[in-house]
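Entry 12.
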Amino acid sequence: MGKLDKKRILLKIGTNVLTKGTNNISRGKIEDIAQQIAFLKDDYEFVIVSSGAIAAAKQFVNLETNGKEINVKQALASIGQPHLMRIFQENFRELGLLTSQCLLSYSDFEREQSKINIVNTINVLVENNYIPIINENDTVATDEIKFGDNDKLSALTAALLNVDLLIIATNTDGIYTKESIDANSVKTIKETSNVLLLREQIKNSVSIHGTGGMTTKIEAAEIAQKANIETWIVNGLIDNFMINAMNNKTEFTKITIQ
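Predicted 3D structure (tokens):
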């Protein structure tokens, strides 16, 4: 929960949102996110889970190696993470927003003391008006590189921090009905608490730059739902996507608690 009367939002940003479907990190998209947070900061406090380190590295380097693909991706993540954080820091600072970096791995959620440390650290950061920007520690972990694009990580973090809302920003207007996908005329499922229904609707597609399809987003929503946290799956490619969703000015999927 947020401090005083502020609600705490965990915002998960996928690679396809950060690149706006291109091969480069979009400073304009990060600026859009910063502008929304600046506008909402009197009523909400934010924790961000951001992908994009590998995409950031690919703008600068082309590694020559005979190693396994997963090792190359881990190396790219190591190179790209500082670049990604610098872009966040520069764009957020222009609006008076302070940022910090937190790198987590799944083993951190399996040890009680590690979980306590995560909560305490993030709470201190937020209380001092720093926005934690979380990514998986890709140099020691491979799960999200292989599949997931930080969807599960965002849900586990949301549950651990007991946030008020999980917003997953992706490159679609939420989850579409299977019937509308088959008819090539997509229609968004606007609200449901039935995760099983959502599983039946989706196709197991995987995005071009990211590693997460809609399957992992539904799995994330299920983790959040079990922690009594509502999940919104919104189109992060659209400017002002969070504010528009809050004002019902855009179509998105709301997965409510049961």
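Annotation: The chain has a mean pLDDT of 88. The first strand starts at residue 7 and ends at 13.
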